[in-house]
Amino acid sequence: xxxxxxxxxxxxxxxxxxxxxxxxxxxxxxxxxxxxxxxxxxxxxxxxxxxxxxxxxxxxxxxxxxxxxxxxxxxxxxxxxxxxxxxxxxxxxxxxxxxxxxxxxxxxxxxxxxxxxxxxxxxxxxxxxxxxxxxxxxxxxxxxxxxxxxxxxxxxxxxxxxxxxxxxxxxxxxxxxxxxxxxxxxxxxxxxxxxxxxxxxxxxxxxxxxxxxxxxxxxxxxxxxxxxxxxxxxxxxxxxxxxxxxxxxxxxxxxxxxxxxxxxxxxxxxxxxxxxxxxxxxxxxxxxxxxxxxxxxxxxxxxxxxxxxxxxxxxxxxxxxxxxxxxxxxxxxxxxxxxxx
Length: 341
Ligand SMILES: [Zn+2]
What we know:
By secondary structure, this protein is α+β, with helices and mostly antiparallel strands. Helices cover 20% and strands 30% of the residues. β1 and β2 (16-25) form a beta hairpin. Zinc ion binds at residues 57-58, 61, 144, 147.
């Protein structure tokens, strides 16, 4: 099998706490022998699971990056059972630039799997995760938001993987986030996703969509951080008291799904998008969840974006300006509980 060219400054087999980086060969005009440094921390203490925790897969998704930066500083090996590997930002140039895609190679990191050892920076890091870090992990946690383009009702989400034991364990991990909604989603925009590669290796994959757009209120960061700690306790890698929603005085998580292509609503024309429904609000069959206005044609009526079936609005357009083909709304539907067992 092809060997990675990525060098790690941390030893994943050593006990204790280490903070370092993954060095990815990257040549540019002012530095021919440069390396892109992706920060990584590993805490290891005796027997237990290995949990790989990551954020910043898309640069413009910050609550997970903040949550992991805090854990890197705060956690000590005595609090760990097994091994916790943390990558606060998978795509540092994109995070610095406030972009979804890597400014270095233009790639969407979450479409770069399984990766290639001789490819772009994104290809190389994807290959390293696929061949080095996923195989050593039992749990793979990848924290997202909708980025600047989409605002989600803050939720943990997952794919409905075929293996029922893996699925049950992913359901339990998703529930441990204690979000109001848990979301079953499907890939409507291409292949090569990080979670799909980890799932195909049999890993227990836990992912989120913690809000999005530009506004990230304090409650969203709190939920990202407190939910994440509860997930790590659930995995058995972090000491602490596990809390259910009932313990927190909250109603049960509502499981919803968007598994049909028509649940994802695309702008039929370019224009200015007006949301007509709040996130988390129920909608009826045929209801307009938003409409597109045309600045150049004040006489023209806005074009509605319709919910094709009754459900709940789980994802909403971030920026008001939209282009034809942009996903502007995600409509979700209640889940038949038997699929979760
Ligand atoms: Zn994302």
